[in-house]
Amino acid sequence: MKRFLNLTKRYPLSVVLIVVIWVLCLIPAFPETPLNEFSMIDKWTHLVMYGTLVAVIWWEYLRQHNTRNARSLFVWAFLAPVVMGGLVELAQAYCTGGRRSGEWFDFLANSLGVVLGTLIGMLLAAIRAKARRDT
């Protein structure tokens, strides 16, 4: 429990985003909105949610550490969100009583969001490294 509280203190936005993603993905259904008119809005939503999550993980990681640990970033800012995306889809398929469905294309959108967030995070790391070299 102490480790979780420490993690929450060091990565508060990441923890909030993880909880929000789980809640949004497991609530029974969304009401109709004008956004439903857009083609594949569901897939775009997944991509943006996971891209934002991973970019925030990178940002909070870079804020907390002076040096990058590639293994740690791979596990926590790439692999864990991909696994979470798969678990969310499985939970939708098997734990919502048929009100939500797990989809392979949602998992693909989640994973593409992770890749996009990783690219943004790498860009943030490069900018930070350049700024440190210039000072």
Helix and strand topology:
Layout: H1 2-10, H2 12-26, H3 41-64, H4 70-94, H5 104-134
Describe this structure in words.
This protein has 135 residues and is mainly α. It has five helices and no strands. Helix 1 crosses helix 2, helix 2 runs antiparallel to helix 3 and helix 3 runs parallel beside helix 5. The longest helix is centred in the last third of the chain and has 31 residues. It is globular.
Order of helices and strands: HHHHH
Shape: globular
Question: If you average the pLDDT, what whole number results?
Answer: 93
Query: Could you say which structural class the secondary elements and strand pairing correspond to?
Result: mainly alpha
What distance lies between the first and last C-alpha atoms, to the nearest angstrom?
39 Å
Mind describing the biggest β-sheet? none
Beta-strand portion reads under 5%
Instruction: Report the C-alpha radius of gyration, rounded.
Output: 16 Å
Q: Bin the helical content.
A: over 70%
Please give the number of β-strands: 0
**Are there runs of 5+ residues with pLDDT below 50, and where?**
none
- Total helices: the number is 5
